[in-house]
Amino acid sequence: MIKGHKQCSDCKAIKPVEEFPPGRGQCRACKKAQNAKYHKENPEKKKAYNAKYKKENPEKIKAYNAKYNKENPEKIEARHAKYKKENRETIKAREAKYRKENPEKTKATAVKYRKVNPEKIKAYQAKHRERNYETIKARHAKHREELFPVYVKSRLSSQFGLPANDIPQELIELKTEALTAIRLSRKIKEVLNECS
């Protein structure tokens, strides 16, 4: 036997002692394979053991995860990106459900984000407008044509210098009626001009 080596009791290969756990006759590779086989054949036991360990050692797990995340940012990012790509619809549904069940929290988070990141939002909006110019233009035309409340609000906001969210619903309804009347008046004039 070569000095500093020993024979594995499982695979019978002669390996350096560093490849053996202290006081064990089975090498790490064989032990790993044995564990993998056991876990595959006993998933419920493994699940129960993991749950028990998590419950009994929350601080150990937290410390291990923090260390691992710090040492492997690329792996974490790649794993997250892969998960997002493969589970787009699940994530969308989960986020929609959360927003529906927690409207106040969602609103508070959005307000806080807007307050802290005005430049990011400005840049995102500019990029979004540039990429979707035709769609936005068509949507605005539709809103103007059909007098959507959002269009009427923006008109009132410009007219009175008020934030759109501060404009009361009653004023929006009155402005909608007024714009409808103005448009009707124009149509009547056009018809009269054509007749004369």
Q: From the alpha-carbon coordinates, what is the Rg to the nearest angstrom?
A: 33 Å
N-end to C-end Cα span: 117 Å
> Which strands sit side by side, in order, in the main sheet?
1-2
The total count of strands amounts to 2
| Total of DSSP H or I helical runs spanning 4+ residues | 10
Give an account of the 3D structure.
The chain has 196 residues and is mainly alpha-helical. Among the domains are: 1-41, no CATH class; 133-196. Helix content is 77%, strand content 3%. The chain contains ten helices and two strands. It has helices spanning 28-41, 43-56, 58-71, 73-86, 88-101, 103-116, 118-131, 133-146, 149-160, 169-195, and strands at 5-7, 14-16. It has a two-stranded antiparallel sheet. Strand 1 and strand 2 form a beta hairpin. Helix 9 crosses helix 10. The protein is rod-shaped.
Considering the chains and any ligands shown, give keywords for the structure.
196 residues; 10 helices; single chain; two-stranded antiparallel ribbon; 2 strands
Structure at a glance:
Among the domains are: 1-41, no CATH class; 133-196.
How would the blueprint of this fold be written?
Elements: E1 5-7, E2 14-16, H1 28-41, H2 43-56, H3 58-71, H4 73-86, H5 88-101, H6 103-116, H7 118-131, H8 133-146, H9 149-160, H10 169-195
Antiparallel strand pairs: 1-2
